[in-house]
């Protein structure tokens, strides 16, 4: 039971041996299994207790009384006499023996120092200026209050106190530094302070022997001190050590007190106001901000990479000063030659840069940080070592809470460590689930768990945050805003590492609890917009659990992956693509532990294909293979099977055309309507695709009817002001526009949108489509507002690709509003933001083309020509000169050449473009007609009338085919042909007048008497009359 005790020293006097033996008897009767357990119970260091039980030296009365209290032995005259006799015998023994004592028993010089260890300070303390200024102001302030620096272990409390000590010493203050983690060290340190400030030796001896109050004596002299002082008690994580008897440490009777004579500073992990009282100022020492954390790394490591790399590593370490110090120290040592032989297989894997360190941290975990700790001497106390080890420092707080009887604290931290370092709603913590999995005794009451959470917050292991307002929450969760718990990234990683080291049965109990909590969290529909605020809150936790869950328990794994699949649905429907591929890859890797035909593994195989859209034969075959197995395993109408069937039909549409795909999509619509209902988001996806297929095969009336039916179903079942209803209206209006029913489409849309209140639950794609329709209706200002709202949402979800696409639409919108300068500035910033794209990227070239066009619009022709030429040269590397994309570039550039006075070059270019487009897409195509018209106008401008007439006649023939004889474009071309024929002498003045008379009547119908075409023709006729 006491195997770790050495025999009592037989060469010591009998009274000394007697005291040691009696203390050992108390330890045995109290059934302490080891010396270390006794030391913990007595709140003393193990070395102090070991010395007291060895008999070589007589312990102080305080040490004796602490051991007796830990053993439930009452203090009495018997023990006082025993201690007094041993002390007297020790004095005589030492006098008699002199230097003849063995070396280890001779009196040794005192090594307890109360000077601050200034040498431990870094070259510069980063990110604490405001706090230090505030603390130093207290030094000169006569207002008495204890200054308590509290925070997470490793957050830099001691560094702040040391910097304050340095400043205080430089300003002439007396500075005392006391270690507060053990009672005997604290008491010894305070005795040294008493002697330092001039307390007579006899008073010190009397008080420290227990015959008078030592704290009262000390503070009587500190209050009366002539010289300003700073008393710092470091590492006071067990506040009771500072208290007098059973009182509170902040009640003014213990070892730390407020005083007008100086400032008392305490560093501690405990930040509860109840502990420190109302005469204490509490300062929460936070982790460092990003810039300060990066600076700290650079201070320590020097040239280990650029500032951006330092910031990235600092972010990975959560800005925690202790972690930053170890990382920086490791890299500094690496620069001096440490780690030169580090290899992985045959590959050199030296860690000498910020990037390399971050990469290695992902492999080695927090153990790598502990390598930044310099080698320690063998005499270093174990507890001091644990304080410095990242992998152990926060476990000490849990040890302490456990000794205080707060046992649920460790269990809670194990569970919370499985989640992300992000706000976790407290309402997800379900005691019944914890008890059912054996993590809590059945007798545990809610108050015990509440106390544990409060203690973890008081120790700064967890922080409390509040969720934003949420539109919906799962059943069993309170009304928002919700209280949430947040753990520091490294605390959670360290605790999670200990979970992984647990026996498999204990690990499984933890993870089953986590999985059940996650099931509750993911119980509301991820596809519905009103739930997305909640899903955004829990998204990081689902990702964290998926990444860490072990795969040895199939039921557990399936439960977690099912929650992950529901999260995937949220990310897709809410259009949040950031990191979605990594998330799916993690789930697929986990699912490999399941059978090949397991439904969950099949579902994830589908999601993997879904994220690699190619719309080709390969993708179609991949979906077909999954669909065949799902149909066999789950049945044709299972919701998962129908998801795959929909995607297969969608790709089939692109590969083989709408005629083949339409019947398959119709089957999916019918099945989903039956299984899920007509307005389920999945059903509506299929109904929309089916309508588009119907339109593609020429059944446009049926397509519009289907979309109108879906709108009516949504209005009936979802209500008129639902975001999904609006999205369906948008699809209907687009179809009506496509069919040329512009007035009806405009009326349909205006009827709906004017009644629809501004809403935050519209998706970015819906907003963008609304803006497109508004633009088609020339409601440009409203369209601009919708584009900007969509861009804001896309920025929030980090959908860079779609953000760029909508940015291009906004640029065109600004141009339509003639906001040319704003459009130029916007597209310039857009181009600059595309640094990640290659020079020949199609989007980047389109943006540069838009920029060139805008420069043309503001008459900056030389710049416009240079930009369009540059784009054309890049296009020419990939495409031939007659490719449709290149022809579009050439067309625009030709107009700029005209403005620069290079008319011959421009006319020749327009002729080539028009001819090539007529061959490529046909004379009736919009682009071919436009190019032919532009070429004709250029020829007219150069008086090449016969050539111009030929192009105008070609243009007229195409327009008649497309529009019919009454269209305004046809009338304009006829006018230009008439004028040209007259100028060439092919028509007489009478013929011209007859043609103009007919055209004028039609133009007046279209444009009114003051229309530009009407006034132009009348002016031409007037000139003809004058001639």
Automatic annotation (TrEMBL):
Pfam families referenced in this protein's UniProt entry, alphabetically: NB-ARC
Residue ranges of coiled coil: none
Highest taxon in the source lineage: Bacteria
Record-linked SMART domains: HTH_XRE (SM00530)
InterPro entries named in the record: Cro/C1-type_HTH, Lambda_DNA-bd_dom_sf, NB-ARC, NLR-like, P-loop_NTPase, TPR-like_helical_dom_sf
HTH cro/C1-type domain sequence ranges: 34-78
GO MF term list: ADP binding; DNA binding
Record region (Disordered): 93-120, 241-260
Gene3D superfamilies: lambda repressor-like DNA-binding domains (1.10.260.40), P-loop containing nucleotide triphosphate hydrolases (3.40.50.300), Tetratricopeptide repeat domain (1.25.40.10)
Protein name per UniProt: Tetratricopeptide repeat-containing protein
Organism for this UniProt entry: Kibdelosporangium aridum
